[in-house]
Design brief:
single chain, alpha/beta, Rossmann fold, ProC C-terminal domain-like fold, 2 domains, two-stranded parallel ribbon, 9 helices, 9 strands, binds 1,4-dihydronicotinamide adenine dinucleotide, binds (2S)-3,4-dihydro-2H-pyrrole-2-carboxylic acid, Pyrroline-5-carboxylate reductase, P5CR_dimer, amino-acid biosynthesis
Length: 268
Amino acid sequence: MSHNLFVGCGNMGSAMVAGWLLANENPGDYTALRPSGRSVPGIRTIQRLGEIDRAPDRLILGFKPQQLRALAPDVARWVTRDTMIVSMLAGADVATLGRLFPGARAIVRVMPNLPVAVRRGVLPLYTPAHEDKALQAELQPWFSMLGFAPWCASEEEFGAIGFVAGSTPAYVARFIDAFAKAGEGRGLDPGLALTAAREAVLGSAWLGATTGEPMAELARRVTSPNGTTEAGLKVLDADLPGLVDRTLAAATRRSAEMAAEIRGEPLQ
Ligand SMILES: NC(=O)C1=CN([C@@H]2O[C@H](COP(=O)(O)OP(=O)(O)OC[C@H]3O[C@@H](n4cnc5c(N)ncnc54)[C@H](O)[C@@H]3O)[C@@H](O)[C@H]2O)C=CC1
Ligand SMILES: O=C(O)[C@@H]1CCC=N1
C-alpha cells in the first residue's frame, strides 16, 4: 500500500483526507504533517518531518504557495527516486517544482475543490510525464475516489480548469447567500431562505448532471414565455457573463503574480 504524506493539511488537505476515508481508504496509509499539532480526523498527525515512520510514496504539498521556497529544502531531504510529488499549490508550476525536487519519481499537479470532502469534487490533474501511462493508471483510481479527475494535456489547460472549478465553491456559496438574503429581504425566515436557495442550486446542478442536457435547455424548460423567470433572466443575463469573466480574469492575474513570487521574480 502507498504511504501518502501531507506536508500541510489545512482546509483542502483535510477535505481530501475526509473524501478518501469516506471511500474506505486505509487510514494507516495516510499521515499529515501539521506544525500546529492539531490532529486531522482519522489519520496520524505529526508535527515534524522527522517523526515519519516510513518513507512516503506520495508526498502531497498542502501548505500555502508562498511557503514553497522556504519549506522545499527540508521537504526535499525526504524525496527519493520512488517519491511522487503531488502539489495542490496554486501558481506553482511544474518547472519550479521540478527545480526544487529534482530527484522525485514524478511531479503531479492537482487543483482540487472543497467538495472532494464528500467525493463530489472537481480535481484536474497535470504531469509533464504525459507519456507515462503507468503513472496515470496508478493515480486515476485514487483521485477518482474524490470526484471528477480529468488529466490535462497542458499546464495551460490545467490552469484554466482550475480557475473554473477550484474557487467555484466560494463563488457558488456567495450566489446561494445572495438568493437567501434576497429572500430574507422579502420577509422569509433566514434559515428557511438559506435552505431553499441551497437546495434549489443543488437540485438544479443535480438535474443538469442527470439529464446531461445543455444548461440553456434546462433554463428554457423553466422559463414560461412572458413569465416571471423570463423577467428575472433579462436582468441576470445583462450582467452575469461579464461578471463571471471579470471574476476569472482577476483570479488568473493573481495566479500569475503568485507564480512570479514563487519564482522569486519582482512583481510587475
Ligand atoms: N482551499 C481551497 O479551496 C484550495 C486550496 N488549494 C491550495 O491548497 C493549499 C492549502 O490551502 P488551504 O488548505 O486552503 O490553506 P490552510 O491554511 O487551511 O492550510 C495550510 C496548512 O499548511 C500548514 N503549514 C503551515 N506552515 C507549515 C510548515 N512550515 N510545514 C508544513 N505545513 C505547514 C498549516 O498548519 C495548515 O494546516 C494552498 O497551496 C492552496 O493554493 C488548492 C485548491 C483549492
Ligand atoms: O484561493 C486560493 O488561492 C486557492 C486556490 C484555488 C482555491 N483556493
